Amino acid sequence: MGIKWRHRAWAAAPPALALLAAGCAGTSGAGTEPTARPSASPARSVARVCAQPPAGPAKAPAGAVTVDPAVAGDLAAKTKSSPPNTTFWLRPGKHRLDPDRYSQVIPKEGDRYLGAPGAVLDGNKTNQYAFGGTARDVTIGHLTVQGFAAPQNEGVVNHDSADGWVIEHSTIQYNSGAGLMAGARQRVSASCLRGNGQYGMNAYKAGDPISGLVLEGNEITANNTEDWERRKPGCGCTGGVKFWAVNGADIRGNWVHDNRGTGLWADTNNNDFRIEDNVLEANDGAALIYETSYNAVIRNNTIRRNNWVEGRKYADRGDNFPFATVYLSESGGEPRIRARTDKIDIYRNTLENNWSGITLWENADRFCNSPANTSSGDCTLLVRHSDRCARPTIASAPLYADCRWKTQRVDIHNNRFLLDTSVVKCTAKCDRMAVLANYGTYPDWSPYQGERVAEAITLEQHNRWHDNVYTGPWKFVAHDPARVLDFGQWQGTPYQQDPGSTLDPRAGG
């Protein structure tokens, strides 16, 4: 997890974890369902998957193996005794595994699991995992998976992060840990990831980076019910979806809402993301965090009413860091790393009534081998061996530049930022756009001490706002949290930000 102005835990959400009533009706079958709260009707067409998931096949497809819910362990046993590339059809009803925590289904390559209408695979809070193993190209469709007790940072479906899995028209809900893990070339579409204890999906795989990940048309809601940031302050281990070392991801057409904490969080050496046509709303924390990562396109998203809980918490404590709904922490464009873009391009988004707007941040003390690097043991993608980032060589080119993740080449343009403080119910600190760093202090061998990084991120690293429309009483922060500017100062020397942009301070209340 990235450090903001200094070490801090993420805010705890209130006991009534927010669910949209339209998207989250029904009972969990796995504990008490969180309390609902109303949300405004989305302007953009959204993936209302959880309320009415499409029904699976009412009859077994030709050649399919039928699975009987009356026989405990029938699914795992028939999978074991069948050859690869078998289709399994789960009859209506509640299916269970053998009553051992390590009982799970181990698919073979190319297996397909299709649920009939009303088919549920239930872990009964006994089994840790539903589907595991390393078989490739497994499909799970029209199936509800619930009630599994995965440990922290582990997942229920695709527990071992096998490659090429397809999860479609499925509901993965009310599990501990992550509802779903990810492997390379995994596609998750038209599915409901709801009410899981830690993540809706944890895109993490030991070893090689995950590549070719697609999330399309899903509803991702009410995850982190176990409030891990409160249980382990500063762990950076929650979110609707968390991405680690993913190289190539398309995240489009999803409805990510009412999660406790962050909606979408890319953390540590991710690259080449396209985040487009999503609705990100009413998450307790930021809608999107892109941290110590590279090269992304963020466009055509509707982003509203995010970060009210966490932003207000720190503002009430007197914290002057500009907490924002889109937070780029030590992340930027890097032409030397292959991707579909060589910058972070943020455009044609609508941000409405969030707690602040976009913050570009760089921690001067966070770099390879620094004790302030909370991505422990990781180095940038530009340095193969992190032990090279040491004195005296780190003070000279190329390591001076390559040993730190930099917020650079960020292009923020043609967006609409709307703020009505009477809607957000704030009187201060919810109205910020920012580009800043801290004063570098440690370790004593750091070549980045003092204001070097603050000067670089603000004036030298090609971070630009332009051609945006602002409605409401927006303020702008540059260099450090104490330097709060009005629109004229932001546009003037030396910052020269937002040419071609307009601001109407009255319309936002």
From TrEMBL:
A Pfam family it matches: Beta_helix
UniProt KW Signal keyword: yes
Gene3D superfamilies per the UniProt record, alphabetical: Single-stranded right-handed beta-helix, Pectin lyase-like
Biased segments, Polar residues type: 79-88
Stretches for region Disordered: 27-46, 76-101
Keywords: Signal
Keyword Signal: yes
SUPFAM superfamilies referenced in this protein's UniProt entry, alphabetically: Pectin lyase-like (SSF51126)
Protein name from the UniProt record: Right-handed parallel beta-helix repeat-containing protein
The species this protein was found in: Streptomyces orinoci (Streptoverticillium orinoci)
